[in-house]
Design goal:
Helix content is 82%, strand content 0%. It has helices at 3-18, 25-45, 50-72, 76-91, 93-116, 120-125, 127-138, 151-171, 178-199, 204-237, 244-276, 284-316.
Protein backbone atom coordinates (compact mmCIF):
# COMPACT_ATOMS: atom_id res chain seq x y z
CA UNK A 1 0.00 0.00 0.00
CA UNK A 2 1.29 3.47 -0.84
CA UNK A 3 2.10 5.62 2.16
CA UNK A 4 -0.35 8.37 1.12
CA UNK A 5 -3.21 5.87 1.01
CA UNK A 6 -2.18 4.35 4.33
CA UNK A 7 -2.22 7.81 5.94
CA UNK A 8 -5.55 8.72 4.33
CA UNK A 9 -7.23 5.56 5.58
CA UNK A 10 -6.05 6.02 9.16
CA UNK A 11 -5.80 9.78 9.76
CA UNK A 12 -9.19 10.14 11.44
CA UNK A 13 -8.51 7.18 13.72
CA UNK A 14 -5.12 8.54 14.77
CA UNK A 15 -6.53 11.98 15.51
CA UNK A 16 -9.26 10.36 17.58
CA UNK A 17 -6.65 8.43 19.55
CA UNK A 18 -4.75 11.67 20.20
CA UNK A 19 -7.81 13.21 21.79
CA UNK A 20 -8.80 10.28 24.01
CA UNK A 21 -5.67 9.80 26.11
CA UNK A 22 -7.71 10.52 29.25
CA UNK A 23 -10.26 7.79 28.49
CA UNK A 24 -10.75 4.59 30.50
CA UNK A 25 -7.63 2.42 30.88
CA UNK A 26 -9.14 -0.50 28.94
CA UNK A 27 -10.04 1.72 26.00
CA UNK A 28 -6.59 3.29 25.96
CA UNK A 29 -4.99 -0.15 26.12
CA UNK A 30 -6.98 -1.26 23.06
CA UNK A 31 -5.96 1.90 21.23
CA UNK A 32 -2.34 1.26 22.17
CA UNK A 33 -2.50 -2.25 20.68
CA UNK A 34 -4.05 -0.93 17.48
CA UNK A 35 -1.57 1.91 17.08
CA UNK A 36 1.39 -0.43 17.62
CA UNK A 37 0.04 -2.58 14.80
CA UNK A 38 -0.02 0.48 12.54
CA UNK A 39 3.47 1.39 13.76
CA UNK A 40 4.78 -2.09 12.96
CA UNK A 41 3.33 -1.83 9.45
CA UNK A 42 4.83 1.63 8.93
CA UNK A 43 8.24 0.50 10.19
CA UNK A 44 8.16 -2.36 7.70
CA UNK A 45 7.17 -0.41 4.60
CA UNK A 46 8.08 3.22 5.41
CA UNK A 47 10.92 2.94 7.98
CA UNK A 48 12.31 6.47 7.57
CA UNK A 49 9.12 8.40 6.87
CA UNK A 50 7.47 11.11 8.93
CA UNK A 51 4.46 8.83 9.30
CA UNK A 52 6.54 6.27 11.18
CA UNK A 53 8.01 8.96 13.45
CA UNK A 54 4.51 10.31 14.12
CA UNK A 55 3.11 6.87 14.97
CA UNK A 56 6.06 6.16 17.25
CA UNK A 57 5.35 9.36 19.15
CA UNK A 58 1.63 8.58 19.38
CA UNK A 59 2.36 5.05 20.61
CA UNK A 60 4.65 6.49 23.27
CA UNK A 61 1.96 8.88 24.47
CA UNK A 62 -0.66 6.15 24.62
CA UNK A 63 1.76 3.95 26.55
CA UNK A 64 2.34 6.78 29.01
CA UNK A 65 -1.43 7.17 29.40
CA UNK A 66 -1.85 3.46 30.15
CA UNK A 67 1.02 3.60 32.62
CA UNK A 68 -0.34 6.68 34.36
CA UNK A 69 -3.87 5.32 34.64
CA UNK A 70 -2.72 1.99 36.05
CA UNK A 71 0.09 2.95 38.38
CA UNK A 72 0.61 6.67 38.80
CA UNK A 73 -2.66 8.22 39.88
CA UNK A 74 -1.51 8.33 43.51
CA UNK A 75 1.88 9.85 42.76
CA UNK A 76 1.64 12.16 39.78
CA UNK A 77 4.60 14.28 40.85
CA UNK A 78 6.94 11.31 41.10
CA UNK A 79 5.84 10.10 37.67
CA UNK A 80 6.48 13.54 36.18
CA UNK A 81 10.15 13.73 37.20
CA UNK A 82 10.82 10.00 36.93
CA UNK A 83 9.28 9.34 33.52
CA UNK A 84 7.38 12.14 31.81
CA UNK A 85 9.99 14.90 31.92
CA UNK A 86 12.90 12.64 30.82
CA UNK A 87 10.79 11.43 27.86
CA UNK A 88 10.14 15.06 26.92
CA UNK A 89 13.89 15.69 27.04
CA UNK A 90 14.42 12.75 24.71
CA UNK A 91 11.66 13.80 22.32
CA UNK A 92 13.11 17.29 22.00
CA UNK A 93 16.80 16.40 22.24
CA UNK A 94 17.52 18.22 18.96
CA UNK A 95 16.19 21.47 20.41
CA UNK A 96 18.37 20.93 23.48
CA UNK A 97 21.47 20.45 21.35
CA UNK A 98 20.60 23.52 19.26
CA UNK A 99 20.10 25.63 22.40
CA UNK A 100 23.43 24.41 23.78
CA UNK A 101 25.18 25.21 20.49
CA UNK A 102 23.72 28.74 20.38
CA UNK A 103 24.75 29.32 23.98
CA UNK A 104 28.33 28.04 23.58
CA UNK A 105 28.85 30.11 20.43
CA UNK A 106 27.63 33.22 22.21
CA UNK A 107 29.94 32.45 25.17
CA UNK A 108 32.88 32.29 22.76
CA UNK A 109 31.83 35.58 21.17
CA UNK A 110 31.59 37.20 24.60
CA UNK A 111 35.05 35.96 25.62
CA UNK A 112 36.68 37.04 22.34
CA UNK A 113 34.98 40.44 22.49
CA UNK A 114 36.27 40.96 26.04
CA UNK A 115 39.75 39.92 24.93
CA UNK A 116 40.01 42.36 22.05
CA UNK A 117 37.99 45.25 23.50
CA UNK A 118 38.95 46.51 26.96
CA UNK A 119 35.63 48.32 27.35
CA UNK A 120 33.43 45.34 26.48
CA UNK A 121 33.25 43.87 29.99
CA UNK A 122 32.18 47.24 31.40
CA UNK A 123 29.58 47.55 28.67
CA UNK A 124 28.11 44.15 29.52
CA UNK A 125 28.60 43.95 33.30
CA UNK A 126 28.40 47.63 34.17
CA UNK A 127 31.01 49.97 35.66
CA UNK A 128 29.74 49.43 39.19
CA UNK A 129 30.25 45.67 39.15
CA UNK A 130 33.66 45.87 37.45
CA UNK A 131 34.92 48.53 39.85
CA UNK A 132 33.67 46.59 42.88
CA UNK A 133 35.31 43.38 41.65
CA UNK A 134 38.60 45.15 40.97
CA UNK A 135 38.51 46.51 44.54
CA UNK A 136 37.83 43.01 45.88
CA UNK A 137 40.73 41.63 43.84
CA UNK A 138 43.00 44.30 45.30
CA UNK A 139 41.84 43.27 48.79
CA UNK A 140 42.65 39.63 48.06
CA UNK A 141 38.98 38.57 48.02
CA UNK A 142 37.97 38.58 44.32
CA UNK A 143 34.64 36.83 44.94
CA UNK A 144 33.57 38.91 47.90
CA UNK A 145 30.36 39.85 46.09
CA UNK A 146 28.90 36.51 47.21
CA UNK A 147 29.43 37.42 50.86
CA UNK A 148 27.71 40.79 51.01
CA UNK A 149 24.10 39.75 51.59
CA UNK A 150 22.18 37.66 54.09
CA UNK A 151 22.14 34.04 52.94
CA UNK A 152 18.39 33.48 53.12
CA UNK A 153 17.45 36.76 51.41
CA UNK A 154 20.02 36.05 48.74
CA UNK A 155 18.53 32.57 48.27
CA UNK A 156 15.02 33.97 47.77
CA UNK A 157 16.13 36.69 45.36
CA UNK A 158 18.38 34.49 43.25
CA UNK A 159 15.88 31.64 43.07
CA UNK A 160 13.05 33.96 42.03
CA UNK A 161 15.23 35.74 39.47
CA UNK A 162 16.46 32.51 37.87
CA UNK A 163 12.93 31.14 37.56
CA UNK A 164 11.83 34.46 36.02
CA UNK A 165 14.70 34.33 33.50
CA UNK A 166 13.77 30.76 32.55
CA UNK A 167 10.09 31.64 32.02
CA UNK A 168 11.07 34.77 30.10
CA UNK A 169 13.43 32.81 27.85
CA UNK A 170 10.73 30.20 27.23
CA UNK A 171 7.93 32.66 26.44
CA UNK A 172 10.15 34.56 23.99
CA UNK A 173 10.15 31.40 21.89
CA UNK A 174 6.71 32.35 20.55
CA UNK A 175 8.53 34.96 18.45
CA UNK A 176 9.34 32.28 15.84
CA UNK A 177 11.96 30.71 18.18
CA UNK A 178 14.14 33.77 17.54
CA UNK A 179 13.24 35.34 20.88
CA UNK A 180 14.65 32.40 22.85
CA UNK A 181 17.79 32.40 20.70
CA UNK A 182 18.30 36.09 21.49
CA UNK A 183 17.89 35.40 25.22
CA UNK A 184 20.40 32.54 25.06
CA UNK A 185 22.77 34.76 23.08
CA UNK A 186 22.48 37.55 25.64
CA UNK A 187 23.15 35.24 28.58
CA UNK A 188 26.01 33.54 26.73
CA UNK A 189 27.67 36.87 25.92
CA UNK A 190 27.44 37.86 29.59
CA UNK A 191 28.91 34.56 30.79
CA UNK A 192 31.73 34.55 28.24
CA UNK A 193 32.83 38.11 29.02
CA UNK A 194 32.37 37.56 32.77
CA UNK A 195 34.50 34.43 32.76
CA UNK A 196 37.21 36.02 30.59
CA UNK A 197 37.37 38.94 33.02
CA UNK A 198 38.68 36.61 35.74
CA UNK A 199 40.95 34.60 33.44
CA UNK A 200 42.58 37.83 32.24
CA UNK A 201 43.50 38.61 35.85
CA UNK A 202 45.01 35.21 36.55
CA UNK A 203 41.98 34.01 38.48
CA UNK A 204 40.64 31.53 35.91
CA UNK A 205 40.92 28.31 37.90
CA UNK A 206 39.77 29.96 41.11
CA UNK A 207 36.76 31.46 39.33
CA UNK A 208 35.77 28.05 37.98
CA UNK A 209 36.07 26.44 41.42
CA UNK A 210 33.95 29.17 43.01
CA UNK A 211 31.42 30.32 40.42
CA UNK A 212 30.63 26.94 38.88
CA UNK A 213 29.61 25.47 42.23
CA UNK A 214 26.22 27.01 41.50
CA UNK A 215 26.77 27.87 37.85
CA UNK A 216 26.77 24.28 36.60
CA UNK A 217 23.13 23.77 37.52
CA UNK A 218 22.05 27.34 36.90
CA UNK A 219 23.51 27.68 33.40
CA UNK A 220 22.39 24.20 32.38
CA UNK A 221 18.83 25.05 33.38
CA UNK A 222 18.94 28.33 31.43
CA UNK A 223 20.01 26.40 28.32
CA UNK A 224 17.15 23.93 28.84
CA UNK A 225 14.72 26.85 29.20
CA UNK A 226 16.02 28.10 25.86
CA UNK A 227 15.35 24.66 24.40
CA UNK A 228 11.79 24.88 25.76
CA UNK A 229 11.43 28.16 23.90
CA UNK A 230 12.59 26.47 20.70
CA UNK A 231 9.99 23.75 21.26
CA UNK A 232 7.33 26.46 21.49
CA UNK A 233 8.55 28.43 18.49
CA UNK A 234 9.12 25.41 16.26
CA UNK A 235 5.66 24.05 17.05
CA UNK A 236 4.24 27.24 15.54
CA UNK A 237 6.60 27.31 12.56
CA UNK A 238 6.42 23.60 11.72
CA UNK A 239 2.99 22.16 12.66
CA UNK A 240 3.52 18.92 10.63
CA UNK A 241 0.34 16.82 10.69
CA UNK A 242 -1.39 19.09 13.23
CA UNK A 243 -3.22 22.34 12.62
CA UNK A 244 -1.05 25.31 13.53
CA UNK A 245 -3.16 26.02 16.60
CA UNK A 246 -3.03 22.41 17.81
CA UNK A 247 0.72 22.26 17.23
CA UNK A 248 1.34 25.55 19.05
CA UNK A 249 -0.73 24.48 22.05
CA UNK A 250 1.11 21.16 22.18
CA UNK A 251 4.49 22.92 21.98
CA UNK A 252 3.47 25.40 24.68
CA UNK A 253 2.37 22.57 26.96
CA UNK A 254 5.54 20.53 26.45
CA UNK A 255 7.81 23.57 26.76
CA UNK A 256 6.09 24.69 29.95
CA UNK A 257 6.58 21.20 31.41
CA UNK A 258 10.31 21.55 30.76
CA UNK A 259 10.45 24.94 32.50
CA UNK A 260 8.40 23.74 35.48
CA UNK A 261 10.65 20.70 35.73
CA UNK A 262 13.63 23.03 36.04
CA UNK A 263 12.34 24.73 39.18
CA UNK A 264 13.96 22.24 41.61
CA UNK A 265 17.27 22.66 39.75
CA UNK A 266 17.06 26.45 40.10
CA UNK A 267 16.25 26.10 43.81
CA UNK A 268 19.29 23.89 44.40
CA UNK A 269 21.47 26.27 42.35
CA UNK A 270 20.20 29.24 44.39
CA UNK A 271 20.96 27.35 47.60
CA UNK A 272 24.53 26.66 46.44
CA UNK A 273 25.06 30.28 45.40
CA UNK A 274 23.66 31.71 48.63
CA UNK A 275 24.96 29.29 51.25
CA UNK A 276 27.97 27.53 49.67
CA UNK A 277 29.65 29.72 47.04
CA UNK A 278 30.42 32.41 49.62
CA UNK A 279 32.89 30.03 51.29
CA UNK A 280 35.61 30.77 48.77
CA UNK A 281 38.26 29.33 51.08
CA UNK A 282 36.85 25.78 50.97
CA UNK A 283 39.22 22.99 49.85
CA UNK A 284 39.48 22.35 46.12
CA UNK A 285 38.29 18.76 46.60
CA UNK A 286 34.94 19.93 47.99
CA UNK A 287 34.43 22.49 45.23
CA UNK A 288 35.26 19.93 42.55
CA UNK A 289 33.00 17.31 44.09
CA UNK A 290 30.00 19.69 44.05
CA UNK A 291 30.78 20.95 40.56
CA UNK A 292 31.35 17.51 39.04
CA UNK A 293 28.38 15.97 40.82
CA UNK A 294 26.15 18.68 39.36
CA UNK A 295 27.57 18.16 35.86
CA UNK A 296 27.17 14.38 36.08
CA UNK A 297 23.57 14.78 37.25
CA UNK A 298 22.66 17.07 34.34
CA UNK A 299 24.29 14.79 31.75
CA UNK A 300 22.64 11.71 33.23
CA UNK A 301 19.15 13.17 33.75
CA UNK A 302 18.89 15.11 30.48
CA UNK A 303 20.67 12.73 28.07
CA UNK A 304 21.52 9.26 29.42
CA UNK A 305 18.46 8.43 31.53
CA UNK A 306 15.91 9.63 28.91
CA UNK A 307 17.60 7.49 26.24
CA UNK A 308 17.37 4.43 28.51
CA UNK A 309 13.66 5.02 29.19
CA UNK A 310 12.94 5.50 25.49
CA UNK A 311 14.84 2.33 24.59
CA UNK A 312 12.85 0.38 27.16
CA UNK A 313 9.63 1.84 25.78
CA UNK A 314 10.64 0.94 22.22
CA UNK A 315 11.21 -2.66 23.30
CA UNK A 316 7.72 -2.75 24.79
CA UNK A 317 6.29 -1.35 21.57
Amino acid sequence: MREALFVKQNTEKWKYFEGTQQAKPDEIANQFIEITNDLAYAKTFYPKSKTTAYLNGLASKLHQSVYKNKKEKSNRFLYFWKTELPLIFFEYRKQIFYALAFFLISCAIGALSAKYDDTFVRLIMGDGYVNMTNENIAKGDPFGVYKQQNEFLMFLQIGANNIYVALYTFVLGIIFSFGSIVSLFRNGIMLGSFQYFFFSRGLGLQSVLVIWIHGTLEISAIVLAGAAGLVLGNSFLFPKTYTRMESTLKGAKQGLKIVLGLIPIFIVAAFFESFVTRHTEMPMAISLSILLSSAVFIIWYVFIYPAKINKKLAQIN
